[in-house]
Amino acid sequence: MLLKCLKLKPLMNPTMIHSCNISSTSASVTKIHRTKFTRTYPTILVKPDGSSINIRYQEPRQIIRLPLDLSTLTEAERKARMEKRKPRQKIVVQEELEDSFNSNRYLKFIKK
Questions:
Q1: How does DSSP classify residue 30?
Q2: What is the distance between the alpha carbons of residues 78 and 80, in angstroms, rounded to a whole number?
């Protein structure tokens, strides 16, 4: 009768390990659970559609832009993008100067 009143709990099996179920939502909110990890720097990642996210990157950069997929653009937009990629030609302007300077005209202003 006394044993029924106490209701002793059985000891836990030492081989049983309680595991933590981590989902993608909890992983994005918490910190990196490592004792040693490489140095990472806060960086802004800009997607082709214009949205941006804050990430950790192994090199010290402020911003990273992902390239735009040209196959998703219309033909007119694709041509405009390709024109912007071409190197600009430098315009060289050569002026022909007519020199009519005569130094003998100014000899009278030189003090001896």
A1: S
A2: 5
